[in-house]
């Protein structure tokens, strides 16, 4: 082909876009710029119509390869869920307390609240740094290379936590581990939302929260099996289990295809076509060209309406999230993840230490912890059915409201628990209700909504900013929660529920007015609605006509 690039004019803007076509234009059998543009737009509309008409059963049959790769890439989150649950549960763990705690005078040991806060914060500080870097790294190098590099580092950093001679070394190990986990934490939602058809997008992004629950369930099982071990290996073995994941995950990620959306952004349309074919059944390979055309068309739409800097620095990649066209989407993504913290997860999701302070033995506390993680796993699966019927927004707002009620009831019940110790069992019951509702709503849907809201060109960066915001809140919550509940500090016990219920109320009010419905919307349609400035509560009712796509 003689011409190496074309200059195309976006039909929705007067902005000129330079687009390389050497590798993709031959698929249409024409070198004409106008013909190429017409073919792209026509095929994009066909792919969009196909997305809307596809049933769940059909999507699973035709795109099972995409489902498998999404599940495997998202499995990296299991490591994060495992480690986060491990540290929170270790605060009441006998062998861990004996190694890093101080004597209480009755033959037992207690971890000081300052070290509880420090250990909880170390990973979040590392994750904050890692996740901010990830937005730049993932966009520059792609998902696969960043994940493989992070998995190699994980294998080395686990040594710090397993063999830490002092709590200072353990703190450093948690920071290193958090740094790597930050690089992995947004990979699952980004990759899954880009490789799967629209009808499966919600399920596979919500599955990420199930990976969290799987990690927590494994942690609960390992902790339960080692709770009677009084030696240092009682806590070392749970840390050492983290060596199990990296090698098999590295092999899977090495074999996985890159995201076709990322490949198009890099001007590699032919590679994007190959990736789309690898992600779909052979019977629909003839439609792969239409899918790539839809990606190109959406990419052009976003380019035409945003001034993107040519700088490739980390700070420049973050600034893209706060342009006029992206700032609203960044706000929604950030606050959606933030509600996972404001709903009281630091208090209710890892309740082993709270139950120990309420009077339960270590054995009972960790048995109930296994039940909690089992409930979370089942709840994540059930959330798929609710999502199909009701969408994202109603479940998210209703679920967060019920969580507020559960938190408030924990505080109310503490009034009675001070006089009647048996009330602690009712408090345990409300904790389980909280976990069930969280796993049906806020937990999984935060990943789904956050993965669907950002513009595709800045999705990695937006998710990185949002997760950094999440980890900054987790950092503050990690400092506050041990102080609220530790017997040597505020010792609020169940009254902590009052604190978190008042924190969660403003977030629920925000969600009512600002959280849009994203169910059954392609990325192009979301781009159009956001560019129109459509109020969030009207997203679910808006009807598109042919002029909207042109």
From TrEMBL:
<dbReference type="InterPro" id="IPR050360">
    <property type="entry name" value="MFS_Sugar_Transporters"/>
</dbReference>
<keyword id="KW-1133">Transmembrane helix</keyword>
<feature type="transmembrane region" description="Helical">
    <location>
        <begin position="394"/>
        <end position="417"/>
    </location>
</feature>
<dbReference type="InterPro" id="IPR003663">
    <property type="entry name" value="Sugar/inositol_transpt"/>
</dbReference>
<keyword id="KW-0812">Transmembrane</keyword>
<dbReference type="InterPro" id="IPR005828">
    <property type="entry name" value="MFS_sugar_transport-like"/>
</dbReference>
<keyword id="KW-0762">Sugar transport</keyword>
<feature type="transmembrane region" description="Helical">
    <location>
        <begin position="468"/>
        <end position="485"/>
    </location>
</feature>
<keyword id="KW-0813">Transport</keyword>
<feature type="transmembrane region" description="Helical">
    <location>
        <begin position="204"/>
        <end position="223"/>
    </location>
</feature>
<feature type="transmembrane region" description="Helical">
    <location>
        <begin position="364"/>
        <end position="387"/>
    </location>
</feature>
<protein>
    <submittedName>
        <fullName>Sugar transporter</fullName>
    </submittedName>
</protein>
<feature type="transmembrane region" description="Helical">
    <location>
        <begin position="66"/>
        <end position="82"/>
    </location>
</feature>
<keyword id="KW-0472">Membrane</keyword>
<feature type="transmembrane region" description="Helical">
    <location>
        <begin position="115"/>
        <end position="138"/>
    </location>
</feature>
<feature type="domain" description="Major facilitator superfamily (MFS) profile">
    <location>
        <begin position="69"/>
        <end position="519"/>
    </location>
</feature>
<dbReference type="InterPro" id="IPR020846">
    <property type="entry name" value="MFS_dom"/>
</dbReference>
<dbReference type="Pfam" id="PF00083">
    <property type="entry name" value="Sugar_tr"/>
</dbReference>
<feature type="transmembrane region" description="Helical">
    <location>
        <begin position="497"/>
        <end position="513"/>
    </location>
</feature>
<comment type="similarity">
    <text>Belongs to the major facilitator superfamily. Sugar transporter (TC 2.A.1.1) family.</text>
</comment>
<dbReference type="GO" id="GO:0016020">
    <property type="term" value="C:membrane"/>
</dbReference>
<feature type="transmembrane region" description="Helical">
    <location>
        <begin position="150"/>
        <end position="171"/>
    </location>
</feature>
<dbReference type="InterPro" id="IPR036259">
    <property type="entry name" value="MFS_trans_sf"/>
</dbReference>
<feature type="transmembrane region" description="Helical">
    <location>
        <begin position="235"/>
        <end position="256"/>
    </location>
</feature>
<dbReference type="GO" id="GO:0005351">
    <property type="term" value="F:carbohydrate:proton symporter activity"/>
</dbReference>
<feature type="transmembrane region" description="Helical">
    <location>
        <begin position="429"/>
        <end position="447"/>
    </location>
</feature>
């Amino acid at each position: 082909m003689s011409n190496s690039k074309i200059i195309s004019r976006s039909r929705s803007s007067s902005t000129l876009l330079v687009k390389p076509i050497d590798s993709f234009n031959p698929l249409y059998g024409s070198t004409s710029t106008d013909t190429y543009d017409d073919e792209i737009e026509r095929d994009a509309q066909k792919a969009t119509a196909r997305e809307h008409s596809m049933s769940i059963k059909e999507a699973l049959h035709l795109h099972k390869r995409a489902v498998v790769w999404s599940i495997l890439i998202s499995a990296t989150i299991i490591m994060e869920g495992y480690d986060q649950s491990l540290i929170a549960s270790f605060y009441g763990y006998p062998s861990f307390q004996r190694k890093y705690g101080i004597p209480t005078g009755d033959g037992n040991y207690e971890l000081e609240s300052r070290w509880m806060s420090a250990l909880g914060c170390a990973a979040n500080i590392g994750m904050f740094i890692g996740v901010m870097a990830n937005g730049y790294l993932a966009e520059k190098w792609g998902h696969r290379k960043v994940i493989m590099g992070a998995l190699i580092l994980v294998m080395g950093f686990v040594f710090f936590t397993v063999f830490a001679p002092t709590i200072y070394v353990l703190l450093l190990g948690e920071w290193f581990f958090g740094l790597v986990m930050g690089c992995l934490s947004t990979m699952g939602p980004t990759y899954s939302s880009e490789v799967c058809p629209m009808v499966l997008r919600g399920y596979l992004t919500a599955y990420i929260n199930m990976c969290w629950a799987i990690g927590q369930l494994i942690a609960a099982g390992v902790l339960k099996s080692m709770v009677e071990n009084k030696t240092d290996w009682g806590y070392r073995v749970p840390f050492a289990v983290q060596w199990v994941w990296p090698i098999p995950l590295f092999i899977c990620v090495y074999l996985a295809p890159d995201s076709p959306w990322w490949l198009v952004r890099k001007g590699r349309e032919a590679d994007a076509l190959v990736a789309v074919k690898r992600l779909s059944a052979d019977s629909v390979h003839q439609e792969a060209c239409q899918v790539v055309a839809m990606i190109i068309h959406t990419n052009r739409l976003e380019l035409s309406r945003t001034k993107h800097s040519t700088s490739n620095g980390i700070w420049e990649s973050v600034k893209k999230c706060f342009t006029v066209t992206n700032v609203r989407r960044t706000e929604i993504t950030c606050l959606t993840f933030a509600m996972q913290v404001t709903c009281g997860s630091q208090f209710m999701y890892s309740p082993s230490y709270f139950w120990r302070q309420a009077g339960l033995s270590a054995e009972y506390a960790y048995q109930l912890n296994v039940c909690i993680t089992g409930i979370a796993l089942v709840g994540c699966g059930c959330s798929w059915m609710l999502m199909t019927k009701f969408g994202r927004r109603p479940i998210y707002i209703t679920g967060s409201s019920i969580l507020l009620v559960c938190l408030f009831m924990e505080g109310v019940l503490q009034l009675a628990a001070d006089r009647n110790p048996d009330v602690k069992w009712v408090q345990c019951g409300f904790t389980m209700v909280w976990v069930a509702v969280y796993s049906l709503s806020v937990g999984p849907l935060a990943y789904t909504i956050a993965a669907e809201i950002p513009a595709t060109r800045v999705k990695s960066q937006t998710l990185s900013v949002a997760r950094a915001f999440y980890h900054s809140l987790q950092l503050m919550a990690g400092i506050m929660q041990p102080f609220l509940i530790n017997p040597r500090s505020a010792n609020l016990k169940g009254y902590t529920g009052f604190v978190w219920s008042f924190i969660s109320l403003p977030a629920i009010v925000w969600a009512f007015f600002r959280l849009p419905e994203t169910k059954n919307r392609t990325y192009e349609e979301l781009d159009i609605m956001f560019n129109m400035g459509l109020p969030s509560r009207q997203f679910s009712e808006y009807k598109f006509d042919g002029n909207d796509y042109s």
